Amino acid sequence: MAVNLSTVQLRHPRLPEMIGELLRDHQLPAETLELEVTETGLMEDIDAAAHNLHSLRRSGALIAIDDFGTGYSSLSYLKSLPLDKIKIDKSFVQDIGQDEGATIVRAIIQLGKSLGMTVIAEGVETPEQEAYLIAEGCQEGQGYYYSKPLPAHELGLLLRQSQRFDRAVNSELR
């Protein structure tokens, strides 16, 4: 399960403790939780964010940086923070048809993979975008090409019917 953390939540001094309590109360292993943070959220108070992220990562939770490329973070934070996943912002994915957009997406994929992170492309809307991402080695995708946002009761139907969704949630696009 992926959960977005706000800037306020990210720097809360009891965040790791509160998340641990919730996981215990619901009898969920920490490994089932992916916490998503934005570059902007990280930069508000990098020391508090780093402390909490390291603590959460030690507990087993996965950490993803969301909307990558839209903030002003230093690339040095990619190697010093306990990040498992990097999510390419949809604004870059939408520009894949242009040389500069494709170059940026390719560079982010290579960067993430070289740092041992899973790379996820947000905002995949066309088969051409998916084909490009697969060719470049992107491991996961999300967006309207696979499904629009759904209420929980419709998710089961989608899982049974959609081959494209299977490609989106597998560990590799291909």
Outline the biggest β-sheet: 6 strands, parallel
**Total domain modules:** 1
CATH topology: TIM Barrel
Main structural class = alpha/beta
CATH architecture: Alpha-Beta Barrel
Oligomerization: single chain
Low-confidence stretches: none
* Name of the top-level CATH class: Alpha Beta
N- to C-terminal separation? 22 Å
Strand content: 5-15%
Give me the strand/helix succession: EHHEHHEHEHHEHEHH
Tell me, briefly, the overall form: globular
C-alpha-based Rg, rounded:
17 Å
Q: What is shown here, in short?
A:
This protein has 174 residues and is α/β, with parallel strands linked by helices.
Secondary structure: elements and pairs:
Elements: E1 2-4, H1 7-10, H2 15-25, E2 34-38, H3 39-44, H4 46-59, E3 62-68, H5 76-80, E4 85-88, H6 90-93, H7 99-114, E5 118-121, H8 127-136, E6 140-141, H9 152-161, H10 163-169
Parallel strand pairs: 1-2, 2-3, 3-4, 4-5, 5-6
Helix pairs in contact: 2-4
Question: Which descriptors apply to this entry?
Answer:
6-stranded parallel beta sheet, alpha/beta, TIM Barrel, 174 residues
